[in-house]
């Protein structure tokens, strides 16, 4: 059973990202003139499904992309997009600078709950609307290690079981929603894989 779930989790990447893009287009139909921020772009651009947003958003000159690493190679691949090296917990933009912010599977990497709350606070500060995704803690296979069930243990025993570094803080739907300010409208969606709730998507709109 564990191997089957692991294979399922490994194979779902591209399909999941296509589903996210379709949901994004429904929530925020791309339009000329809007300013869009993509927070947490990946240097691993050759991997299937990585940076799906950069590839598919139809108005690249309207996109600003943020990542914590050197983004020189990405800037060469996507010359119309503006790239900024920065930490998502401290974005170098003015309040409300963007119409929409997109962030795919980044929040689980920024640190424990206070760091995640700061990350969300920054996304809400700089954008009027947003599309934020993260793996669901209640999916039975941990999506980064592909090890089944261990992430349901308390963090201390889980780290001992894994026997290697695991700098991921997974979220449940309830905890994810609580990271957003109370006055922000959040539509929390769940994307399923094999019947299991695999991915959480928070679509937010500021008042």
Tag the structure with descriptive keywords.
207 residues; alpha/beta; Rossmann fold; 7 strands; 31% helix; globular
Task: Describe the SSE topology.
Layout: H1 2-11, H2 13-27, E1 36-39, H3 52-56, E2 63-67, H4 72-77, E3 82-85, E4 98-104, H5 113-126, E5 127-135, H6 155-162, H7 173-178, E6 185-193, E7 196-205
Parallel strand pairs: 1-2, 1-4, 2-3, 4-5
Antiparallel strand pairs: 5-7, 6-7
What does the model show?
By secondary structure, the chain is an alpha/beta fold. The chain has a single domain, classed as 3-Layer(aba) Sandwich (Rossmann fold), CATH 3.40.50. Helices cover about 30% and strands about 25% of the residues. It has seven helices and seven strands; from the N terminus they run ααβαβαββαβααββ. Strands 3-2-1-4-5-7-6 form a seven-stranded mixed β-sheet. The longest helix is centred in the N-terminal third of the chain and has 15 residues. It is globular. The mean pLDDT is about 90.
Low-confidence stretches: none
According to CATH, what is the class?
A: Alpha Beta
CATH topology: Rossmann fold
Say how many strands there are.
Answer: 7
- Terminal-residue CA separation: 46 Å
How many domains, in number, for the residues? 1
Average pLDDT metric? 90
Q: What class, by secondary structure content?
A: alpha/beta
* Total of DSSP H or I helical runs spanning 4+ residues: 7
- What is the H/E order? HHEHEHEEHEHHEE
> What is the topology, as strand order, of the major beta sheet?
3-2-1-4-5-7-6
Radius of gyration: 17 Å
Going by CATH, what is the homologous superfamily? Vaccinia Virus protein VP39
Outline: globular
Largest sheet: 7 strands, mixed
Strand content: 15-25%
């Amino acid at each position: 059973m564990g191997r089957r779930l692991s294979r399922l989790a490994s194979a779902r990447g591209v399909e999941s990202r296509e589903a996210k893009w379709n949901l994004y287009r429904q929530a925020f139909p791309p339009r000329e003139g809007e300013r869009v921020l993509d927070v947490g772009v990946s240097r691993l651009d050759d991997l299937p499904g990585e940076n799906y947003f950069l590839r598919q958003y139809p108005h690249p000159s309207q996109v600003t992309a943020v990542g914590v690493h050197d983004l020189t190679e990405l800037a060469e691949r996507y010359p119309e997009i503006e790239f900024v090296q920065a930490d998502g917990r401290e974005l170098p933009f003015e309040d409300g600078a963007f119409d929409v912010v997109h962030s795919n599977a980044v929040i689980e990497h920024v640190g424990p709950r206070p760091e995640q709350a700061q990350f969300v606070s920054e996304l809400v500060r700089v954008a009027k609307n947003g599309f934020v995704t993260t793996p669901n803690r209640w999916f039975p296979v941990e999506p980064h290690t592909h090890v089944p069930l261990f992430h349901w243990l308390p963090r201390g025993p889980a780290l001992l079981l894994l026997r290697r570094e695991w700098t991921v803080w997974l979220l449940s739907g309830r905890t994810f929603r609580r990271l957003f300010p109370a006055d922000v409208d959040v539509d929390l969606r769940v994307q399923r894989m094999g019947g299991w709730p695999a991915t959480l998507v928070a679509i937010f709109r500021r008042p």
